[in-house]
Each structure stands twice: as C-alpha cells, then as structure tokens.
Please model this.
Amino acid sequence: MQTAEPMEHSADPEFKREVLTPAECRKLAPDLAQDVSLYRYRHLHKPWVLCIATCGELKSGKLSLGGFRIVPEARAATKDFSPEREALGLATGMDEKVYWSRVIRVGGPQGIKNLDRVVGGKCVLLPGSDSRVGQANDIKMLNFAISAMLDFEEHSGIFLTTGQDLGHGVLSDGKTTSLEYLNQYFHGSVLADTSEPTAEGNLYSLLGMLKGAGLSASKANIGLIGYGNIGKHLVRRLEEVLGATVLQRLFVVEFSQVRRQELARRGVRVFAPEEKGSLLAFGIDALVVNANGGSLDSKTVDQIISNPRIKVICGCENLVMHDHNDADRLRKAGRLYCPTELCGMMGYLTAVEEYLSKRTGSCSDMKSMLEAAKKLEDACEHAARRALASGSELTFEAGMRAEFDKKG
Model:
C-alpha cells in the first residue's frame, strides 16, 4: 500500500507540457465566447492527462478559480468527451460565475476586496484504469498533477485555486482523502466543503425566483434533478426554511437507487433517470438541476415548454445545457431560467475566501459565506419581476443587469 509521502517538485518532471493559445482552443471548442488558454500535461509513461484551462491573461498574476475534477468513469465514457473541451467549457462557466458575483457584489470579506483579480479556470484530470481515487496508482497520479500545477504557475504567471469537484474520495492508503492530499502538497488547493454554500445560493435564488413569479414557496411543487452533495444540502435547507411538509411537494430524479430509497422513506416522490420525462410532465412549479451535466438537453427543454405549470428553472449544475439556443426557447415560452453559473456562484466564492484567508493569515468563516448567499433572494426576485414585466423580451440575466444598473 502506498503512503502519502511528501513529494518535491522535480526539476525533470515526467510529463510533456503543451500550451494552447485562445485561437487553438477555439478550434477545439468553436462555441467559446471568450479567450481561454489551456495547458495540457501528458505523463510520459502513464495514460494520465491533466488539462488546466484559464480565462486569465498569461503573466497577469490573476487568480484562476475552478475545482479540480478527476473525471468519473461514466463521464469519460460519454459521447465526444475530451478533457480539453471539458476544461474549456467549465472554465468559461466559472468565469461567468465570477462575472455575476461582480455584478451583484456578493462574497466573503476577502473575496469582495479581490474580485477584480479573479478569473475562471478549471483543472480536469483524466486518470487511467488503475488510478482513480481508491485504486493502486492514485497517489502517484496526484503527484503528477501536483507537479504539473506547480509548473503551470511558474510558466504562466497565474495563480491556481482549486477545490472540490467530481471524482474525489479516500485514497488507497485508506485514510487520506484526495482533497487533503492535494491541499497538503499544493498551496492553491482548498478543503472547504463548497457544496453547502453552493446549495445555500441555490436555495435563495429559488426562493427569490418563485416570489418574483408570484408563486408561494410554501405551496409550490418543486422538481429536483440530482440528490448528490448539493441536492442533499438543498433538501435539508428547504425543510428547515419551509417546514417538513415541503417533502410532500418535492419530486426528485436521482441516479442512485440507495438515495432514491432514502428519499422515498421521507415521503419524497422519486424517479429513476429514465423516468425524467414523467417528472417533467408532473404538476411542478419549479425545476432545480444539480446533476453531473447535461440535464437541460433539447428534449428536456421541449418537455418543460410542454408543461405550462413549470415557471422557474434554476440550479448549480455545470455544463447543464448542450445547446445554448435552448435558453432563448425557454425565455420565448415565458419561463424564468436562471443560468446555473449565476445560481452556483457561492461555491467558487467560498474557495477563493479560504485561499485568500490562508495567504493573508486571517480566518475563513463559513458563516459569512452562508450569510452572503441571502443576497441572491432579493436579486433574483427583482430580476424575475423585470423579465416577466417585459413580456419575456428580457432574459433573466438582462433583468438582473438592469436591476443592478439601476442601483448604480
């Protein structure tokens, strides 16, 4: 069994570094809406690939924020998957979260002071068949990733801040988590459980949108896609805020049979993934998406539009929509769609708060992040009202910008 021995950044690393310019990145992902650079690291003897995407200009000294994703096997097996496109898409999504946090001016005390230094980024690590977390070569693979991230900072002049994402767990030593290992040996890795503040932002966004749509949160039926880390926090908080009877008005699509059984015992109506259409045809007022990606495909958008009762769509899922024209179809159909990048900003803000607090020697306070999330309720309520008052001419995002332009 391997042990978590300290590692040193090697002067002769066992990887090949390739730097892709924004123009080269657009060839890989033609729908990129902004300039993104990508560093691709390939191990010389193993199949490991680490892609680091950043929206920061090289040598800028910016903070590139984004989780460290160890690609799950099911995700890697999806059609047309590539770690490069995954990193690029997630980095631009993260940069959109940064943008909305600037517009609304939400964050912890350190984050608010440093928002102008922050850009979106992402680390996506594609493992081999024997190196996923818990397998024989997981620690060696993380050592490769750590060495590559140190090289990225030295070569790019950009500082990485990475946190929780998919694919993490207890390593093959049986005691150390992958996040703890990264945190121990890479200064930019943070440990904060970002799922809780992310869910808190989701909660207040949902409550505000329902209010803006003229719907009572205490009576609304709510559909959820995904009951993972964020979904569990969200259900708990809905019960705390709205009372136990909310469980009778929750309808959840979840992949895990164990989690479906857990919810069913609590009185929640549950659906397997192949039954998503049944949920969307049900009498729900709001749909909240927090799965692993792609929940709002075009077929799902068709089903939402076909159900006149669904008025509100939000959530924190990354890479949720394959075709961005579908967001416009929702608007034209009179639905309120809050981009998941806006709704999900609190997780990234928590990561940057921990990173900056560590750098300045101050304390990072989770309570301040949960308190900051409350600002999203009022912001989303007013954005929803503006969008609806326009006769759906305005998108939800345009309503949000107009609201904060008014406040100056």
Notes: Residues 83-104 form the longest helix (22 residues).
